[in-house]
Amino acid sequence: MIRDQETLNQLLDTISRFVRERLIPAEERVAEEDVIPEDIVQEMKEMGLFGLSIPEEYGGLGLTMEEEVLVAFEIGKTSPAFRSIFGTNNGIGSQGILLDGTEEQKRKYLPRLASGELIGAFCLTAPDVGSDAASLKTRAERDGDHYVLNGTKRFITNGPIAGIFTVMARTGGEGAGGISAFIVEGDTPGLIRGKPDRKMGQRGAHTCDIIFENCRVPAENIIGLKEGQGFKTAMKVLDRGRLHISAVCVGVAERLIEDSLRYAIERRQFGKPIAEHQLIQAMLADSKAEAYAARSMVLEAARKMDNGERVSMEAACCKMFCSEMVGRVADRAVQIHGGAGYIADYGIERFYRDVRLFRIYEGTTQIQQIVIARNMVREAQS
Ligand code: COS
Fold it and tell me: How far is Cα 350 from Cα 169, in angstroms, rounded to an integer?
């Protein structure tokens, strides 16, 4: 937790300046070269971006959820690929250890994640198991003081570069209760990385298959040293991750609104700036109102989480609304830019492709609907 408002404002100002002065000018190059320049990664490390959510005692900044979403609003104002490189260390790549790990596991791994020395990744999805996570088939068989992992995981964000993986694998019978979460170091023999996937957008952020072939993992690397808890750990990690992604969606939407407004003021048609035409104004207004609603709901849910309340339903509401919202905002941004929105020079078409992922990863919109409705029914019945 940041102790006073002034320090928090300073952090937000620093990040906002970094986004404006360093990241936005590098967007096109990153998209072209499909890689985040090393000097930028280094600056991110120095600013503490790899350890935003990791407590200070383990070397991070220890931000509350509210503080973290405020940072994500700022980071969202540039290409999502920049966030992706440190996003897993704050979210899906570290939270399992932080939420359910033993003290020893936390001390061993969290400081190296917070500093960015290690990149973290999260292995839940498999070729045949996506939304129905509880039916995953990757096996972990006990063999003395090790488990032997076999199976393939798919679309693993930061898979090509990660030094540590949280891997959900089956140690018991069918269903959620048979799943355990393991910490697997990147150089463990039998952990094989597939070729980076070719994707629709977010160039500079990489995913790949992670294949386990008789990969021997020490038994002491089961998160929390308890079998059968892995599914719940994964779900809790995703609750937090979904709020973070929602905040990034808000940031991207605000960026696209800013770009659209600037263009609409500069661009003249029928003798006046298109910003003075009501049909353009309607699109700007719809985007503004939706982004404002999204910002407000994310902040509210984050505060609830900071109060110690369970926010599975609220996080799902945020993820559903914010990711769909930014899709609509990106679509309007292309429309306001007209032909310029469709060609690469303005970067709008790049964002249009980039934001498509938000409606899919960390749970599709349809999964969020299921989570929301189930919670509603459960609450009403109890
Ligand atoms: N926090 C804590 N525990 C949770 C939880 C949460 N958010 N969600 C579920 N659980 C618990 C349940 O309480 C249940 O525990 P008990 O057996 O003790 O009652 C257990 O986990 C199983 O839950 P459930 O029966 O709801 O599991 P389902 O198989 O029906 O699946 C969904 C639930 C669909 C919500 C889940 O599979 C899901 O989120 N899928 C999407 C996965 C995803 O987001 N993938 C994206 C890629 S990962 S980046």
Answer: 36
pTM value? Answer: 0.97
CB of 48 shorter than 6 A to ligand 1: no
Residue 3 three-state SS: coil
Ligand 1 centroid – CA 357 distance (Å): 21
Distance 342 CA to ligand 1 centre (A): 39
Among 100, 129, 232, 371, say which to mutate for ligand 1: greatest number of ligand atoms within 8 Å of CB. Answer: 232
Q: Rounded to 5 degrees, what are φ and ψ at 191?
A: -95, 115
CA–CA separation, 266 and 272 (whole Å):
9
Ligand 1 midpoint to CA 235 (Å): 5
- The answer to whether residues 315 and 345 belong to one domain is yes
CATH of the domain at 301: 1.20.140.10
With pLDDT > 90 as the criterion, what percentage of the chain qualifies?
A: 98
pLDDT digits (tens, 9 = 90+) for 323-341: 999 999 999 999 999 999 9
With a 6 A CB cut-off, is 193 part of the ligand 1 pocket? no
**Are residues 213 and 251 located together in one domain of the fold?**
no
Mutate-to-test residue for ligand 1 from 235, 238, 240, highest number of ligand atoms within 8 A of CB: 235
CA distance 160 to 195: 8
Question: If you write DSSP's letter for every residue of 178-200 in order, what string do you get?
Answer: GEEEEEEETT-TTEEE-PPPP-S
155 with 217, same domain: the answer is yes
SS3 121: strand
- Give yes or no for residue 198 having a pLDDT over 90: yes
Instruction: Say yes or no: 278 and 328 in one domain.
Output: yes
Question: What is the greatest pairwise CA distance in the chain?
Answer: 79
